[in-house]
Give the backbone structure.
Amino acid sequence: MIAIVLGTRPEIIKMSPIIRACETHGLDCFILHTGQHYSYDMDRAFFVDLDLPEPEYSLDVGSWTHAEQTGRIMAGIEKVLMKEKPEIVLVQGDTNTVLAGTLAAAKLSLQVGHVEAGLRSFDRRMPEEINRVVADHISDHLFAPTETSRQNLLREGIDDAKILVTGNTVVDAVSQNLEISKTRFDVLDEMTLKPGEYFLVTAHRAENVDIRMRLGGILDSLAAIGDAYSNPVIFPMHPRTAKMVREFGLSLEGITVTGPLGYLEFLQLESNARLILTDSGGLQEEACILGVPCVTLRDNTERPETVEVGANVLAGVHSEKIISSVSRMLGAASTWKNPYGEGNAGEKIVARVAHQRRSELHLPLS
Ligand code: UD1
Ligand code: UDP
């Protein structure tokens, strides 16, 4: 039995190819949803869009301080794992759900597989960096998306035998869902947008949106970019960001704000954007995969592959740098090669898990 632990929007999306591969190969698995994300458009919408099975367990933990949230998730996961005793627990990414899931499973001496292992921003002020480092060091199987992430793990003394370079499951998710999306609806038509004639934005990092000066700087730059290029700026807003905009009383003039969008709609918006501005990890990858230039609203990234291939540039949050980065990326050719694999990461991960299981059960290895 495989336990799939997830709790936030990107985990649902990036675990979906693994769930799909388990189904295809008839492997027993169950979903344990921590409830870190819970609003319909941050959670259920993705189960519907991606046609995923219902979680067997929902902890409904919700939003708390870091320690409170991590502790509550750990306690909930421990109960389920003690009952189910899965052969392996899979976690994905760098959220508090991942930290809690990995700790709870490792302390029960269960095998843990970390999907998207080895990413490093080398910035320990980010909660995500702490979560990734801990998860990597106590997991038994490290599914690294690229050779760069494998090297990060080796440098920290992690045994090479635990690491498998798989590509990123986000490539699987994009290729599995973009075509489906096109057969269902035309978001550009619904939003009266023209391909290549709008900017797409997301921002939700604590270090950006919880600080008035930084969030205000981002919003001012977005309005200036929309104005300078006479293109609409579309900003599907994360609830954390919406809350902070309200709290700080910031102006959204010059920006088209929507709520968070479903994955199928969002993929259409991404693939047709003139340029993407973001502080999201997943968007840096998806922009790169889809051939859309990206300006990252951060000073560092744990996705350096996107910068190295020329798909992404780090701009921070100061207006001048953001505006010059947009101009630079619009002037560059979008001919880079996707560094995140062929879209079979989910299959590779499930094959390794199945192989491991058969060897432990002393069955013939296929
Ligand atoms: C979390 C992850 C971050 C990931 C992001 C994906 C951690 C430390 N952070 O950040 O790495 O990139 O998810 O989106 O694990 N809220 C809602 N509805 C929801 C979820 C959140 O309204 O369904 C609001 C609440 O006001 C909450 C705030 O957003 O307090 C932050 O939510 P939280 O899960 O703590 O962090 P994220 O910013 O979503
Ligand atoms: N996404 C979405 N709708 C939106 C914004 C994002 O479906 O309105 C998807 C996006 O395509 C990507 C994922 O959510 O796959 C990224 O999630 P997020 O930015 O919240 O988290 P991060 O990747 O930074 O951890």
